[in-house]
Design goal:
globular; 18 helices; Rossmann fold; six-stranded mixed beta sheet; alpha/beta; 22 strands
């Protein structure tokens, strides 16, 4: 890309066109001849599975990467974006998946410092007046004097969006902006930038995996697959099925385990019973504060909640990776602490979050990892020795049945993609009779066919009589799979409802800490 003069500063939404953009990292082609056009005031969704090239493309737009080939036009003029300063001068800003706020600074200080060049003396009286006027134009309010580090995750994400608007961005790139927001908070944030786009004050490019957000706010879509352009279209003409098919390159698998196959019996004793469970986090502070819940055979209990409210610790306690400091856990009426012997006795299996780290030995082979549940039992164990032949036979069967893509069962499991590690662990955990299944964010990073397969297997386990505890940050997943939904907030279960009666707004209210308001009123 040849250097050209920067476009002079302007206001209002900008028009963006990318033509033939390519980017390599060594032998890896991250982007291959990708083109994209967004008119001024457009709200454009960029879709694709993990590794499709979405992040590489937007990082080229904000100057963190320099494209090897291609042309970028802003308002029909060719520009060179060699660094983040170039992008900023063009009015291009980005809200990242990870927070960029300085925790020790107040919200006001973060906003002012974000401007970059500052005078030696800052007139804070004038700055606060300017900020107060600006904040008055927004639908959500954040205290300007509050330290950023003390904000909740949803508040931090709002400040990240506020910061870009305060800097008068003309093109705003949103990278999974609602992953830490409740449904109401997500609608607030996306509704705000959507209104600005309709007023031609802002152009929006959003990366998201939530089709609800795409269909509710975007007016057009571009899909990438394996670094290449896979298709595009306008909404609402483009259906979810079409978008999903473009993302994976084939029709999406259909659910093969109907929810209606099995109805749990209400008077059956709970298979999992948790009473006043308490635990500490990594820094010695309470992370579970008296959790109460139960799961019966033949049902899926979904645990909803904004990330960081104790869900991870709950799964760690139940899988034996974190000790409890109080309360009781019973499985089939017996005390349970997550030890391997107890898991085997009670047929407890699990798919924890980040399975490569939490459910595998990364340096061992696929075959060895697939045998971690039964390496010491027949037919794998014979006369005190492990039968390599039996282990390999088992692994080959798992690979075929669960369609694990691997260079071979002798390959280290850490060489597999995240989705195939997920499949390998599912194969190991679901190839035995299951009475209690503990699952956390089971389809994160999977393509749509793998998502459908995984959901079908969870439903099949439930239909066969297993009690399933499903922890997920995706409300759509819980509404699709769960029989009951409980909300976890601040280390407690604060709300529970049958799935068929669940209201997204009510769930979001409790996810956002609405139970605290109820407690105060009482």
């Amino acid at each position: 890309m040849k250097p050209v003069e920067m476009v002079a500063p302007a206001t209002g939404a900008l028009e963006l066109e990318i033509m033939g953009m390519s980017k390599r990292f060594g032998d890896v082609v991250a982007l291959d001849d990708v083109s994209l056009h967004i008119p001024a005031g457009g709200f454009h969704a960029l879709l694709g599975e993990n590794g499709a090239g979405k992040s590489t493309l937007v990082k080229c737009l904000v100057g963190f990467y320099t494209a090897d080939q291609g042309t970028v036009l802003v308002d029909n003029r060719e520009v060179q974006i060699a660094n983040p300063k170039d992008a900023s001068q063009l009015g291009i800003g980005m809200v990242y998946q990870h927070f960029t706020l300085v925790p020790s600074m107040t919200v006001a200080e973060n906003l002012v410092v974000a401007r970059g060049a500052l005078p030696a003396f800052i007139n804070w009286h004038e700055e606060r007046a300017r900020l107060s006027d600006f904040m008055a134009t927004l639908p959500f309010k954040i205290p300007l004097d509050k330290p950023a580090g003390s904000l909740a995750a949803g508040e931090k994400q709002k400040v990240e969006i506020i910061k870009q608007l305060y800097l008068q961005r003309r093109l705003l790139i949103l990278d999974e902006p609602t992953s830490v927001l409740t449904p109401d908070e997500a609608d607030e944030a996306l509704g705000l930038v959507g209104d600005l786009a309709r007023q031609k004050l802002l152009t929006v490019l959003i990366i998201t995996h939530k089709f609800r957000e795409v269909t509710a706010y975007a007016d057009a879509v571009t899909v990438l697959r394996r670094g290449r352009f896979a298709g595009s279209g306008a909404l609402p003409e483009l259906t979810i099925e079409h978008m999903a098919e473009m993302m994976v390159g084939s029709p999406v698998a259909q659910d093969v385990a109907p929810r209606t196959q099995h109805t749990p019996v209400a008077d059956v004793p709970p298979r999992l019973l948790i009473d006043q469970l308490c635990a500490q986090g990594d820094h010695g502070l309470p992370v579970l504060r008296g959790v109460n819940l139960s799961v019966r055979p033949g049902e899926i209990l979904g645990i909803a909640g904004v990330s960081g409210n104790g869900q991870k610790a709950l799964v760690e306690v139940l899988t034996g990776q974190r000790g409890k400091t109080g309360g009781t856990v019973l499985v089939n009426g017996l005390p349970y602490s997550g030890r391997r012997k107890e898991q085997t006795l009670n047929k407890v299996y699990s798919l924890p979050e980040e399975p490569l780290r939490n459910a595998c030995v990364a340096s061992l082979s696929v075959a060895h990892n697939m045998s971690l549940r039964n390496y010491d039992k027949p037919p794998l164990a014979r006369w005190g020795w492990i039968s390599q032949r039996a282990m390999r036979k088992q692994a080959n069967g798992y690979v075929e049945t669960f369609r694990v893509k691997t260079p071979g069962i002798d390959a280290r499991i850490q060489t597999l993609s995240g989705g195939n590690v997920q499949r390998a662990v599912l194969a190991r955990e679901l190839s035995h009779p299951v009475e209690l299944l503990i699952v956390a964010n089971p389809v994160f990073g999977l393509d749509f066919n793998a998502v459908a397969e995984t959901h079908a297997r969870l439903l099949a386990a439930r239909n066969a009589g297993a009690a399933v505890l499903l922890v997920s940050e995706d409300l759509d997943e819980l509404l699709e799979l769960a029989d009951r939904i409980a909300v976890m907030s601040d280390g407690r279960i604060v709300f529970e409802t049958p799935a068929e009666k669940a209201d997204v707004r009510e769930l979001g209210h409790y996810m956002a800490g609405g139970h605290e308001e109820t407690e105060v009123m009482q």
